[in-house]
Amino acid sequence: MREGRSLAQALEERLADWSARTGITVEIWALPSRGASPLVVRAVLAALAEALSNVERHSLARTVSVAVTLGDSGLRMTVSDHGIGFGGAALGRGITAMRAHLTEVGGALTVNGVPGGGTTVTATVPRGRV
Question: Among 33, 62, 78, 105, which is 20 to 30 Å from 7 by CA?
Answer without folding.
Answer: 62
